[in-house]
Structures are given as structure tokens and as C-alpha cells.
Amino acid sequence: MALIDLDHPWFKRRWLRLTVTFVALGWGIFEFLTGEIFWSILFLAMAAWCATKFFFLPRQEDPSERDDDA
């Protein structure tokens, strides 16, 4: 069990995935501009991890959700 499950059904909606990614990115930029380098690196890494997981790696399909009517 992961601490934060990015494959949770809540993240199926694209706008939610974008919101989570851009909030982390924005907060990382804010922390960088205010001189807090540690927190900046932390939030920018989280934004990069979310972007990679949400948009660049293929999602694992749940076999129970497949449509096999064909």
C-alpha cells in the first residue's frame, strides 16, 4: 500500500490531475521566490512526480472496469 495512491479512482478526472500537479508546481515556485529552497525543491519534485505519473506513464487498467461487450 502506497502512502499516496496516485492510481486511486479519484484521480480519473483529468482536471483533478492537472489541479494537483499545478498546485504543487505553483507552490514550489512560490517557495523558491521567497527564498525557501528546501521547500521549493520538495514541492517541485512532487509536481514532477505527479506529472510523470499522471501524464507520461501508462495507467494500469482495472480488469473489473473494462468494457467487454464486443
In short:
It is built from 2 helices and no strands. It is mainly alpha-helical and 70 residues long.
Topology summary:
Elements: H1 14-33, H2 37-56
Structural class: mainly alpha
For the largest beta-sheet, the strand count, sense and barrel status come to: none
Rg from C-alpha positions?
15 Å
- How far apart are the first and last residues' alpha carbons, in Å? 34 Å
Beta content: under 5%
Number of strands: 0
Number of helices: 2
Average pLDDT figure:
85
Order of helices and strands: HH
Shape: elongated
User: Unreliable stretches, pLDDT < 50, 5 or more residues?
Assistant: none
Tell me roughly what share of residues is in helical segments: 55-70%
Give an overview in words.
With 70 residues, the protein is an all-alpha fold. The chain has a domain at 12-55. The protein is 57% helix and 0% strand. It contains two helices and no strands. The protein has helices spanning 14-33, 37-56. Helix 1 (14-33) runs antiparallel to helix 2 (37-56). It starts with 13 loop residues before the first helix and ends in a 14-residue tail after the last helix.
